Amino acid sequence: MDLYEYQGKQLFATQGIPVPAGEVAVTPEEARAAAERIGGKVVVKAQVQVGGRGKAGGIKVAENPDEAEAHARAILGMDIKGHVVHQVWIEAASDIEREYYASITFDRGEKKPLVMLSAAGGIDIEEVAATRPEELARLHVDPLTGFQAHHGRWLAYHANIDAVAIRDVVSVLERLYAGFISLDAMLMEINPLILTTDGRVIALDAKVTIDGNSVGRHPEMASFQESGAEDPQERMARERGVTYVKLDGDVGILGNGAGLVMSTLDVVALAGGRPANFLDAGGGSKADDVVTALEVLLSDDKVKSLLVNIFGGITRCDEVAEGLLTALERLGATLPIVVRLDGTNEEEGRKIIADRAPSNVVVEKTMLSAARRAVELAKEAA
Amino acid sequence: MSILVDASTRLVVQGITGREGAFHATRNKAYGTNVVAGVTPGKAGQDVDGIPVFNTVRDAVEATDANTAMVFVPPRFAADAIYEAIESGVDLITCITEGIPAHDMLRVYTHLRRGPQTLVGPNCPGVISPGIATVGIMPTQVFTPGRVGLVSRSGTLTYQISKELSDMGIGQSTVVGIGGDPVVGSSFIDILARFDADPDTDLVVMVGEIGGAEEEKAADFIAENMTTPVVAYIAGFQAPPGKQMGHAGAIITGSSGTAQAKKDALEAQGVRVGTNPTEVAELVRERLG
Fold it and tell me: Which of A40, A199, A209, B183 would bridge with A186, disulfide CB 3.0–4.6 Å?
């Protein structure tokens, strides 16, 4: 789960990491009120989960509340690389002396947290890593013993952090690591971590990703899942507990198991078609799950044909077939549907379709032939 | 012969009185696996289909000499269950549970790798040595005994490709689902090494998917260390970056973890990569001659 900058900064504050005073605003009037409360010069920042918002005009400095309101009016509703801005973050402007970079990532390759620190912050860190790797200090931490003060010192010295800032930067790293563990983060990044002209170290940005599997033990994050940028079908799927990713093709896909569904998308593409989505109805799919899945799929009006690809393990093909019939009856869908059922109770499932399904439903015996058929039908319907 | 699971397997099922635990313990037993015990705290003295239930894994191991554990407990208790299995002294632990927090698994993994025991999973379908024994949730009817090993990150894709092999008359020595999470106890390399050392495995099918770099590492391992031939399949060519495709581990981050990069890495080391499950089975048949 990716968080917005303001959510990350709120979490940083709970961890004792210094952040500028700030408030969220969803209207220009709220932005003005926030700027009045904060006082002085403020920065109006678009809240979108995509890089390059500064260049796109999504970050503006305001000298006074009037300007804050005007900037918020311009930024709210702006489309930044496909992400519409629904919220702005208003925060006290900082006087920047130096810009550093600090992050902790969950390094799945090494199976350890990776802490990185650089004195070359404020710019794209991947470019620093590629062109000046010696300026990016990197350290893996043993997950069982955790981050120690000596790790912080090693990083600060090897990243050439200014002497005056070392103590505070190390403190930020310690708190960042503590938060990384206690909040079950997959990524915590501060770019830039600044040294102000009056010698303070402050996190000026926050990029935080939380492990989706851990959300159950962090009830405080439930509200963070509300996301304005989310696609309507994806939101509907999430609310109903279906794993769904929207793509831009016209062959709708329903399968069970992540690997098989990914494979189905690939086979559709190899057959010359374009998949409309990834949809995993899950292991042990019951009739109700199939109904829910179809409702999500058919709410996308770009879908011209549907491919149902089921390999029964825990999932029983007869239950999937029953679910399909129930869904078609309830939704009255008339688009062509190709069904391939294999595995547990496959004969029963195929018989249910053959005996009782409407004429827009056809059965194919293999995954390959089913994919080819669904692609043909989508082309005919287009 | 086979790897990991065979006639000497003595299985203890953690979470045996739960719905899934009871169902699959019974099915594993019916297939021929020697299921010697179950564990559910507070339910010692009961039995599930004749399998005695104990309060703790250690009690179960002391009473029955179990050497393999299978974990079916819910995600928030799963790390504790794996630690309990490790301390009971069993050789192999298979964790079926899906949705374990990644940081829990990071700690479990680090602890586990400092000792001699093996963990398969979590979020995996288990291990089957067809005709001998099964530990997990795989639909046993699609597998046939034979001499091809298979290792996969995905459950249903494992069944699909195993069925394609069986339909061509190609049986399997052992099929291992290593799981779809970012941190799993056994990697492709761990399982490939076991297959390479197994005299009764003539060829290995490796089924990968987007996310991480384990397939790339496996490609180098195959070239440098293996004598047994490998045929591969990778799922997720159509997956867009930044979107999690079902499995917690199946996500393309930045430019790394793409299906194409994995295919290229494997082919660069001389491993044939099938473009769909049927073609994988055809490549296996061709290679076996």
Answer: A209
